[in-house]
Amino acid sequence: MNLQEINSIISKINNKVYSPVYFLMGEETFYIDLISNMLETCILTEDEKEFNQTILYGKDSSVEEIVSYCKRYPMMSKYQVIILKEAQDLSRKIEQFSDYMLNPLISTVLIINYKYKSLDKRKKLFKNIQKFGVVLDCQKFYDNKIPDWIINQLKLDNYSINIKACQMLVDYLGNDLNKINNQLNKLKIIFSSDVEISPQHIQDHIGISKDYNVFELRNAIGSGDITKALTISAYFSSNSKQYPIQMTLSSLFNFFIQIFQYHSLNNKSEINISTILGINRFFVKDYIIASKLYSMKKISSIISLIKDCDLKTKGVGGSNSSEKDILRQLLVEIMN
Question: What does CATH list as the number for 3-137?
Answer without folding.
Answer: 3.40.50.300
